[in-house]
Amino acid sequence: MNAFDVLSDPVRRRTLELISQKEHASGEIVKVVGSEFGISQSAVSQHLRILRDTGFAKVRKDGAKRCYEIDPSGFDDVDAWLDQLRRYWASRMEALATEIERGKRSAKIT
Amino acid sequence: MNAFDVLSDPVRRRTLELISQKEHASGEIVKVVGSEFGISQSAVSQHLRILRDTGFAKVRKDGAKRCYEIDPSGFDDVDAWLDQLRRYWASRMEALATEIERGKRSAKIT
DNA sequence: CATTAATATTAGTTAAAACTAATATTAATT
DNA sequence: AATTAATATTAGTTTTAACTAATATTAATG
């Protein structure tokens, strides 16, 4: 599953919000997110797996508990794609500005 | 449809890449993206509608042609969410740095 | 004004992802 | 060692989004 697919799910986004603030055990995430969205422990656990597998979350064992915290590396692809796109349209904006500038000059001449 | 759902589709991402570089008529997008992904004119057109409806693309009529260009406003929600998340974990990083710093000092004292 | 060109829309089908229910695993506790 | 607690996994079902085929709309052209 690709990074954008990961972020397209509201349960996963909410989970990322939680674990970006501080580490949370799986059970805590199930309580908060599970009740907010009305979904089962199994469902939340499956989302956690996806977050792990795609580099959005790191896990630490604490006895039987699994503590999740955010892993910024998952966002790399998203950031790169967004930046690339912005470079494209930024250069178009510049080209447009140049064009307008040229227009102004020839207007003055005429 | 929310902004993340919009970006989760590869056809729409490719389309955004195209129209971020320069304006493209619907037919051009159908040719390029349609053939790259092996999908019909209808399919591409449906994606274009989504990009319009969600503020990712602006349209200009040129006779029977419809010229699409990127609309940066669609990205606002995505940017805001990503920034918020980064603020969260950045402040955690700072807290951690402070903690480490304190550790260093008390180590020196002891 | 009939025809062609360019694009959009609609209805129905297919495919993919999310969910539940049940079960398995892993670690702590008695 | 058996039991309980915490979490993960699997199989099967439901839901949602993407697609095709067909048709409608809009504008240009002979």
Topology:
The structure is a homodimer of 110-residue chains.
Chain A: H1 3-7, H2 10-21, E1 24-25, H3 26-37, H4 41-53, E2 57-62, E3 65-70, H5 76-109
Antiparallel strand pairs in A: 1-3, 2-3
Helix pairs in contact in A: 2-3, 3-4
The first copy, chain A, binds a DNA duplex (30 and 30 nucleotides) through residues 1, 5, 9, 11, 25-27, 30, 39-43, 45-49, 61, 63-66.
Question: What report would you give on this structure?
Answer:
The structure is a homodimer of 110-residue chains. The first copy, chain A, has 110 residues and is of the alpha+beta class. Chain A folds into 2 domains: 3-72, Winged helix-like DNA-binding domain superfamily/Winged helix DNA-binding domain (Arc Repressor Mutant, subunit A), CATH 1.10.10; 75-109. Helix content of chain A is 69%, strand content 13%. The first copy, chain A, has 5 helices and 3 strands. Chain A has helices spanning 3-7, 10-21, 26-37, 41-53, 76-109, and strands at residues 24-25, 57-62, 65-70. In chain A, strands 1-3-2 form a 3-stranded antiparallel beta sheet. In chain A, strand 2 and strand 3 form a beta hairpin. Chain A is elongated, with a radius of gyration of 22 Å. The model of chain A has no long low-confidence stretch (mean pLDDT 92). Chain A binds chain B through residues 4-5, 7-8, 10, 13, 16-17, 20-22, 70, 72, 75, 78-79, 81-82, 84-85, 88-89, 92, and chain B through 2, 4-5, 7-8, 13, 16-17, 20-22, 70, 72, 75, 78-79, 81-82, 84-85, 88-89, 92. The structure holds a DNA duplex (30 and 30 nucleotides).
